[in-house]
Write a structure and sequence with these properties.
It contains 9 helices and 8 strands. The protein is α/β, with parallel strands linked by helices. It has a single domain, classed as Glycerol-3-phosphate (1)-acyltransferase (3-Layer(aba) Sandwich), CATH 3.40.1130. The strands form 2 sheets. Strands 1-8-7-2-6-3 form a 6-stranded mixed sheet, sandwiched between helices. Strands 4-5 form a two-stranded parallel sheet. Helix 1 packs across helix 2 and helix 5 packs across helix 6. The longest helix has 21 residues.
Length: 278
């Protein structure tokens, strides 16, 4: 269904975009590299590093060609009101949502710390898959975090042990395969890396107004790749490994010296300076 006939989705997209603009302006010094790799048309999967529980998504939302749709895990919801609110948001914005099933999440289900039941996982995944395929066939942008967990979060995360990355899950490649099986759709898979440097304030940011940026964030997009609709399991594994290596490389930190040098060169070459000396 088009956005013309879904005014609620247009309103939600507008509000998300406004929230992204304000939040990033308050807390983040954001730099984006590799915009030229984003295809102008066709279905796109952005397979991204997941570092920060909020800023990653907001930066990708601002980058995407049109509103981005996020493959969302909701097993972290531990109250009925959280579940209801997130489901309403996801349905309004057309974000496919599911439950993570791994040893970490299974422990949470066993302790009764989720607002969901474990038996809901497979039905939700089936619906999310169908929705994701429909979005890609409609030429939309789908953002997926193949690590499934963040490094900086308000909820407990298995990356609290200091790991920079977790192994990539192959779901993004399989969704691209499914979308392409209509014989018409072509899905571009873009690796996206994040490099974070804390400038000031706590590691887990307080949501308050501040005169100073809390983070310097560099978002980098790599060259797109694709996968055949009938790719073998070995070929799927190869594409996942290729994208994972690219995301790791794109997430390399930039030293302050490099940033300062780039800013100095930009200032020297700025039109205002050239006009002043012209």
């Amino acid at each position: 269904m088009s956005r013309v006939t879904r005014p609620i989705e247009s309103l939600v997209d507008l509000l998300i975009d406004l929230f992204a603009r304000i939040t990033l302006a308050l807390y983040v010094d954001l730099r984006v590299e590799g915009r030229e790799h984003l295809p102008p048309t066709g279905g796109v999967i952005i397979a991204s590093r997941h570092y920060h529980f909020v800023f990653d998504a907001l930066a990708l939302e601002r980058l995407a060609r049109g509103p981005a749709h996020f493959w969302t895990a909701l097993d972290w919801s531990n109250a009925a009101w959280q579940r209801l609110g997130m489901e309403l948001l996801c349905k309004a914005a057309r974000w496919p949502f599911m439950l993570r099933i791994d040893q970490y999440s299974l422990d949470r289900f066993a302790r009764g710390e989720s607002a969901y039941r474990l038996e809901e996982a497979h039905p939700l995944l089936r619906v999310a898959t169908q929705q994701a395929v429909a979005l890609l066939r409609a030429g939309e942008t789908l953002v997926i975090f193949p690590e499934a967990y963040t490094s900086v979060d308000i909820f407990p995360t298995p990356k609290d042990d200091g790991r920079s990355f977790m192994p990539f899950r192959p779901g993004f490649a399989k969704l691209a395969q499914l979308a392409e099986r209509d014989g018409v759709t072509h899905v571009s898979i873009l690796p996206a890396g994040f490099s974070y440097e804390r400038l000031t304030g706590p590691r887990r940011p307080a949501w308050r107004f501040s005169r100073h940026k809390l983070w310097q964030v560099t978002l980098r997009l790599g060259e797109p790749t694709s996968i055949a609709a009938r790719a073998t399991p070995a070929e799927v594994d190869a594409v996942v490994a290729q994208v994972e290596r690219a995301v790791h490389a794109l997430s390399a930190p930039i030293s302050r010296e490099v940033v300062a040098s780039a800013q100095a060169i930009e200032a020297v070459n700025s039109p205002e300076r050239q006009a002043h000396h012209g």
